[in-house]
Hints:
Blueprint: H1 13-19, H2 32-39, E1 43-44, E2 48-50, E3 56-60, H3 69-81, E4 88-92, H4 118-145, E5 150-152, E6 156-159, E7 162-165, H5 166-174, H6 200-205, E8 220-226, E9 233-236, E10 245-248, E11 252-257, H7 260-271, E12 275-277, H8 287-299, E13 306-311, E14 322-329, E15 341-346, E16 351-355, H9 360-371, E17 378-382, H10 396-408, E18 412-415, H11 418-423, E19 431-439, E20 445-454, H12 457-460, H13 472-475, E21 487-494, H14 508-528, H15 532-539, H16 543-556, E22 566-575, E23 578-589, E24 592-603, H17 610-629, E25 635-636, E26 639-640, E27 658-663, H18 681-693
Parallel strand pairs: 3-4, 8-18, 16-17, 20-21, 24-27
Antiparallel strand pairs: 1-2, 2-3, 5-6, 6-7, 8-11, 9-12, 10-11, 13-21, 14-19, 15-16, 15-18, 19-20, 22-23, 23-24, 25-26
Amino acid sequence: MKDLDHDGAVPTRRDLLKTGAAALVIPLVLPATEAAAAAGAGAIGAYLKIGADNTVTLVSGASEMGQGILTGLAQLVAEELRLDWTQVRAEHAPATTQWPNPYGNPLFGWQLTGGSTSTRGWYAPLRQAAADARATLIAAAHQQYGGTWVAIQGGKLKQGAKTVLFSDVIATAAGMTPATGTPWLGTKRVIGQTVNRLDLPSKTDGSAVFGLDVKVPGMKFGSTVHGPVQGAKVKSMPASSGGYTLYNLGTAVGVLASDTWSAIQGAKAAANKVTWDLPATPANADTTALAAHASALVTSTTATTYVAELVGNPVIGPKAQKIDATYSLPFLAHATMEVMNCTASVTASSCEIWAPTQGQQFIIPLAQGITGLPPEAITVHSMLMGGGLGRKFETDYVAEAITLSKLSGVPVKLTWSREEDFKNDYYRPSALIRVQASLNAKGGIGAFVYRNVSPSIGLQRGQVSSNNPEDTGAVSGAVAIPYKMGARRIEYVPLDPCEVRLGYWRSVGESYNTFAVESAVDELALLAGRDPMEFRKSLSSDARTTGVLTALETLTNWAAGPGPGLGRGMAYLSGFGSYIAMAADVANVGGKLVVRKVWCAIDCGVAVNPGSIEAQIQGGVAHGMSATLWGQMGFVNGKPQAQNFNHYKLARMNEMPEVAVSIVASTAAPGGVGETGVPCVAPAIANAWAKLTGTRVRSLPFYPGATMAGA
């Protein structure tokens, strides 16, 4: 951390990386006025600008957090403008309260990155925007030179034997009323190709600017200490001393120092001297108490249930072949590699913010509320993220940085310690899910009754009412499943009150509902004496479901089975606009489960960048496997029990299985990929373990309480 705060006199690791590159590139964050001037007059439409060197830059509202979205969206632009990939650039757009959405993005018209919506939301709008830019450039060439022009490969326009560059006519085009173009929806040159990612060169040579890399002249370095339980408020705090300046932030004490390490150590020292007003109902954030409440609700005949899906009248007779199983999943932390951080500079007339964020659209209103400044006085720079996973939708860390800068009168770079990051998360909800199901006379599913008891993110945030608290996360992955399941009822019962702070996590509801659904389907296949693959294919009610199941069957050579000493399990999901089937081979090594290999077949519609899709599935497997085997956040009277990685284990490199990915060719509209690789991991592993050992694990994680040293 000293490395991040040096004064330039001594080279850092990044400096050494940069000097080893072909050219020295120094990361620079411009003030808003300078950034606007640097953009020049090359803007064409809301999302594109053309430089004097004939490069084309996508100005993206989607945030890059390692998923490759800047590259994927830039491919859409390159397709329509017939660009060579070396001509393409991409950058984050500054946040705005009026994010331009002239093409009616049906998912997110503003600046929000999550839910695997970026590609599927911007596929058609960006292609249309680029097609309009192409038409406008052609019209500009006509106005500037006369005659009829066409766009050709390499960012050029052609009339007979004469060619000009886009950059030759951009000044004319920028002043014209935009023309309307027709996207080239036939053959694809760039879409469907694995191209070099635009963000990797700077990440390799050290010039990439993440939130933790931001430097502003005159800044102080800050950290915060929060109460021992969530919801605690500062009651009393020590005075500033010993080179530390302390500030009361209401729910935290902020500490400013001369460098990040000192600020974090100062916050830890202050923690022992702060007194707190604690929440009055600690049992509402105690996992033992919440679990007991959930257990009562999951079997209750008097609980108020909210029916999310009802088909027919599911009746499970006393003599039916049936299962009655309950599946349990814990609260989970995000545990992003990059801790929460933000830099803010507040003056009497302006506020400038540098934030690694998934939710730019929330930050200007937040800053308005803290500073009292109008929107036009607030500038937000979107920084590269070292992981988001849904945690960086939230704005708590941004608010603290803004407030510290306002109170201190200097720019502040805020960095949380890892412990503060763990204990002040917005956690994925826990879930207790009961599945009652029976077989019909043909060995299929005749009746299916499903009840999910979990705390509601929407209810906690006031987004839904207590009269109807069902939010999409509560039942996602359990409703509208393309299986022939006969009569069925999908119920939701909110676990309320719950004062554990809840948030969106990579795949949220699908991550727990898919575990319950696909474990139950596997148990039904076993009850029917049918092969799990054959059983699911017989249940399939649409071609794309059958397609991924068949692709997985081929990819794994399913009929041949796993090798000696291995168990193989599988799972399926239709979600985020995509279809996915996954299989896992596991071994029992000294009583411990070891995942040897994972296969995945995915139909995500048009595959914009196959390499990124494969990488996202691999990352989803790592994320899902960590949660399946070890992930768990417990609370004792509101106090989070895991406060660093020594009690919150993630998969290590030597534990990562081989992952084989097959992308099913499709002409359907693009589906999501970033979330899609996670939900099937848990049921595929659990089903494989049951096949290998005969032991059915219905409660995750497999190894609760695991530590880095002991697992």
